[in-house]
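User: Modeling request: complex.
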Amino acid sequence: MLDIQKRVREEAKKLLASKKVDLVIGFEEGTLPLRASPTFIYDENEVERLIWNSFCENNLAKYLVGLDGKKIGIIAKGCDTRSIVALIAEKQITREKITIIGLPCQGMLDRRKIQKAIDGEITSVSEDKEKILLKGDGFEKTLVRNEYLYPSCIVCKYRNPVIFDVLIGEKVTDKVEIDEYVEVSEYEKKSAEERWEYFTKEISKCIRCYACRQACPMCYCEECFVDSSHPKWIEKGLDLTDIAIWHITRAYHQTGRCVDCGSCERACPMEINLRFLTKKINKDVKELFNFETGLNLEVQPPLATFKLNDRQDFIK
Amino acid sequence: MKNWEPKILAFLCNWCSYAGADLAGTSRIQYPPNVRVIRVPCSGRINPMFILKALQEGIDGVLVSGCHPGDCHYTSGNYLARRKFAIIKRLLEYIGIEEGRVQFSWVSAAEGTKFAQVIEEVTEDVKKLGPAKKLVKNKRV
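Assistant: Request completed. Predicted assembly structure:
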């Protein structure tokens, strides 16, 4: 990890010094242990701020749309590069202006899960390939890395960057044989009543802060439908039906666009299982249109196109 | 609740299904009066928000109807709509909205009898399901 971090800094320095990019988007040390924050480096002398560890969880593709026009260097994991591909396909960003520093990813660590496994406050953390070492006031604990991955990382199929200009580190083996839709398939087997009960239980936690939207690289609309007052699609309060429509529509708008990076879920302060909706959409898109987001620049997004023989057995 | 009759909302495309409904009327074909029609330019005009909004406002069943594949006045509106409908229908059923609350059909301008038949089927299905409760705001008891 430290070796990779060093090479990230070198690469960023090189790009900035040669004026190939105006800025590099990466991660810096967060204000708390187990956290890393997105950072923007404009000056080659500041590259020492950049870090790389298992807490660099944000999908940095989020920042590209707002910075369009600048030459950007971006540090990107597998999921981030897929979002970049999706954004290019939607013509939100230009490939030529972006230099992708690709990093094969071992999966990011779930800070909440780690905190729950520990009594007391964690003050420092270090890690190697298999273990995480946590230190706090009067305790020291070692955890097995693979047991604390984010749910989205556990079922991640594409851990290597799908596009990149520079690749740092060894490629990891993609777990293509993994069944990423296990949870969705299990959920589908339940009765309609049970499903409604689970859905309402989850979304009733929602406080309508829209952190899920803010964290998502694909949520770049200038005016979101929930903010629109003319027409006022839904009301602002905590009425369950309004919350439900927010979550249904948020998921629906992700059709053929979600790469399942899990950013929405990590950003959620109420720990709502948000991926169970987007994952369902991904599954349907794969089943109905044989499409997976962000793998190929040549393929059009599924709702922007059609086939004459699309399934229509549900239409009278 | 004994005399409860479902409220059905039908979004009909201007060029085919609306004309189909018109033909059913001029041909004096009987069909359940539960349906309220909103005319839209094309089935591709249907934003899934319309469907959600209808359910939230207390509609018991929604029907979206457009031109048969190949017949779209705008060439491909119904093809694009078909993809959207497949996704939203599955998503609604996934979260627990009953199958049959939201239905789709192709009805051409010549299919007055088919229109009446579709309305009959949808009304029948929704009657079996009973009043919509799940997404309804300000439920009246």
